[in-house]
Amino acid sequence: MSVRATARIVATRAGLPVLAGEGPLAVRRTRAEGPGSRVTVVGAMSAPLGGDRLAIEAEVRDGARLTVDSAAATVALPGRRDGADGPAHYDVRLTVGQDAELNWLPEQLISAYGSELRMRTRVELAATARLVLREEQILGRHGEEPGTLFSRLTVHRAGRPLLDQEAAHGPGAPGGWDGGAVLGGHRAVGQLLCVAPEFEEKPLAPRMLGETAVLTPLAGPAVLVTAVASNALRLRHVLDGVREELRHGRWHAAADAYG
C-alpha cells in the first residue's frame, strides 16, 4: 500500500513554531552549531517505495536562519513487482524570506535497482535571502545497477527565475545518460547551489574544480557547482570543500587548490 506524507517546518527568529512530520518523515529539533535553528529529518520507515507520495515543506521567515539535514541517506526502493503502484514522488518546497538564510543539506539519495522516483525541488527566495542547497544522488547501491531517477530543481528569486534544470538517470532515462558527455561511467552526481546578495557586487568566474567538477556563476547573485565522482565519499569531499571555502570567504585561495 502506497504512503502519502508531508513534513512541515517553519522557522522564525524566535524558533520553530511549526515542526510536524508524518509517516516515514519524522523531523527533530537538533543542536545548531551557530545562530539559528537546526532540524534533522529522520526516516521512520523504508521509503520512498513505488507509488509513495512524500513531501517536505520548509519556510524560513524574514530574518530567521535554518539548517536542515538528515540522519541517513534516503533510499528509493522498488514497489510491487508488477509495477502497478507506479513511480514514487518526492516533492521539496522551500521558501526563504527577506534577510533570511536556509542551509539545505540532506544526506545522499540512493537510487536502488528496480526503483523509479520522480523528485522535484521548488525554491522561492526573497531578494535578500541566502541559500545553500546541496543535492547528491548515488546511482545504485554497491555492486548493483541503478533504478530510474528523474529530478528537477526550480529556483525563483524575487519572483524571477534563477535556475530551472532537469536530470534523468537509469534505465528509464533517455539514451546517453551514462555516456562520456554526461556521467562518463561515474555513479555519484551532485550539485551545490549558493545564493547570496554579495555575488551581485563580486561575482565569481567560471572554473574547473579538478577533472570532474565545475563552478558556474548564474545570471543572478548565485553560483552552481556541479560534480560527478566514482563514489559518495569523493563527491561529498568536493561539494563540502567548496561550501566551506565560500562560507569563510576564502574562495580565491581555495580555487588554486582544486584547480
Automatic annotation (TrEMBL):
UniProt main location, coarse: cytoplasm
Top-level taxon of the source organism: Bacteria
InterPro entries: UreD (IPR002669)
Location in the cell: Cytoplasm
GO terms, molecular function: nickel cation binding
GO cellular component, one term: cytoplasm
Keywords: Chaperone, Cytoplasm, Nickel insertion
Subunit structure: UreD, UreF and UreG form a complex that acts as a GTP-hydrolysis-dependent molecular chaperone, activating the urease apoprotein by helping to assemble the nickel containing metallocenter of UreC. The UreE protein probably delivers the nickel.
Family in the record: Belongs to the UreD family.
Chain's role: Required for maturation of urease via the functional incorporation of the urease nickel metallocenter.
Name of this chain's protein: Urease accessory protein UreD
Upper taxonomic lineage: Bacteria, Bacillati, Actinomycetota, Actinomycetes, Kitasatosporales
